[in-house]
Design brief:
Blueprint: H1 13-16, E1 20-22, E2 27-29, H2 36-42, E3 47-51, H3 54-67, E4 90-93, E5 96-100, H4 105-121, E6 128-137, E7 145-152, E8 159-164, E9 167-172, H5 177-186, E10 200-207, H6 233-247, E11 249-253, H7 256-266, E12 269-279, H8 290-312
Helix pairs in contact: 3-8, 4-7, 5-8
The structure holds 1,4-anhydro-D-erythro-pent-1-enitol and uracil.
Amino acid sequence: MSLNGAYSTKNPNLEQMTSDFLYHLAVNIPDTKNPTDIKNQFGHIKVVCLGGKDARMRELAKYIHENVYNGKSGSKYEKDIFEDGHRYAGFIVGSVLCVSHGVGSSTMSVVLHELIKLVRYAKCVDPLFIRIGTSGGLGVKPGTVVVSRKGYNGLLCSEYEIAILGERVSRPAYFDERLRKDLLDAATSPDGGEENAFSVIEGNTMGTDCFYEGQGRLDGASCMKANGEPYTKADKLNFLKRCHDECGIRNIEMEAPMFAALTLHCGIRAADVCVTLLNRLEGDQVNSTKAQLKDFEERPFRLVARFIKRHILSS
Ligand code: R2B
Ligand code: URA
């Protein structure tokens, strides 16, 4: 039986545990049956935003304070509530929790397990999890924001495969349809306002375990095919075109299949909203200027802030 009727636990052992320690967040739950402090601190959270970098998540909290709550969130949004864990950073602003997740699925899955337990102990009602990230685009203009339909792994399968007790376990990796539609809806401004200044599209997202060879880059420390021979620019473009044409992949990052699969498995509605920093059909190096990076990285903030105002705080 689940502690929270809104979403389920996939771990029956949790029902038997009288205390829990979310080690990487340094959050202690001395009494899981009556977690009063956790409920007081997190029970009101409606949206958990996740992004790679600590500093970007602090900026997101500030952005939401200013743009969603008009400077009146009443939250100490600059305080890193997970600093004692020395691994991830977390900032609360109104009913939004912004958390960093590092690079890649293995790093993100650790914080995701602990956050899913946290919102469950806190009895948050139907919390949404939204990753706000960066990516390489496929055939789309740099700066485009992609809201993901499905995650694909580097073998072009829409699944997340993990080894559990010495066996391969494969889980489906698609994102919540209603949340995706609501996010896309937030991209449209009834008065033709600022959101139209950049494109927001839906597409599939490949998440790889390796930034370099896993994403077909030519500029890693190694650049070799399975047969031990170097791959060429033509090989790379062939692969990227297959991703685009056969799988509808419009951007590449390093977390989508794991994030989609674990949230889906645990009954959490989730979305992946990533800006593309470059068009991978044209190159490999991420060499945007500081100002361009700031502008691009803020684009998913703008979309998600508008979504929160329109679909979360108005209801
Ligand atoms: C996008 O950017 C990071 C790699 O630079 C990784 O976390 C991702 O998914
Ligand atoms: N993040 C990635 O994983 N790939 C890119 O090309 C850019 C950002």
